[in-house]
Design goal:
Layout: H1 27-35, H2 41-54, H3 57-65, H4 72-85, H5 91-99, H6 105-118, H7 124-130, H8 136-152
């Protein structure tokens, strides 16, 4: 329950989003809103979730344009929803975000996890390479993504539970 006594709505992806999706449906308009640095973050987040909910290649590629944002929070959220969408058209952009050492650590971590969630084995070389990253958030996320890919394939995964 939130501060107003309302139960937050669960998205079609099973998550409670930090903003409700915009009612706008035109991808170009949502992309413009997403990329408009002058808008409040809440409005930009609404565009993120509206695009995610469309579940199309065009919407996925529009979300990828949002990685040009100055906000690490927004870039992190975009990586998260790309993982939810599980659309392979996002992989080149997610790989680019993971491999960019100048990118915020939380964006890199979320890009790695999204890559695993998408379930395409073509990302294994990048995940393996960055599983040795000096930043534990990145390295551990790559290991989790690799384990998820192995689990999805039915292969044995690294069970490190105590």
């Amino acid at each position: 329950m939130n501060a107003e006594g309302r139960i937050p709505k669960v998205s079609q992806y099973g998550s409670v989003d930090p903003a409700p999706p915009s009612q706008e449906t035109v991808v170009a308009d949502l992309t413009a809103r997403l990329c408009d640095e002058s808008l409040p973050m809440f409005q930009r987040m609404r565009a993120v979730f509206a695009l995610r909910n469309q579940r199309t290649d065009a919407a996925c590629l529009a979300l990828c344009q949002g990685f040009s944002s100055d906000s690490a929070l927004l870039r992190h959220e975009i990586a998260y929803v790309l993982g939810q969408m599980q659309n392979t058209v996002a992989l080149p952009t997610l790989i680019e975000r993971l491999e960019d050492g100048g990118e915020h650590v939380m964006v890199r971590h979320e890009a790695a996890e999204a890559m695993g969630a998408i379930g395409d084995r073509s990302v294994i070389p990048s995940l393996e390479k960055f599983s040795q990253d000096p930043l534990p958030e990145v390295a551990e996320s790559c290991i989790v993504a690799l384990d998820l890919l192995a689990w999805v394939d039915g292969a044995e995964f690294h069970d490190t539970e105590c």
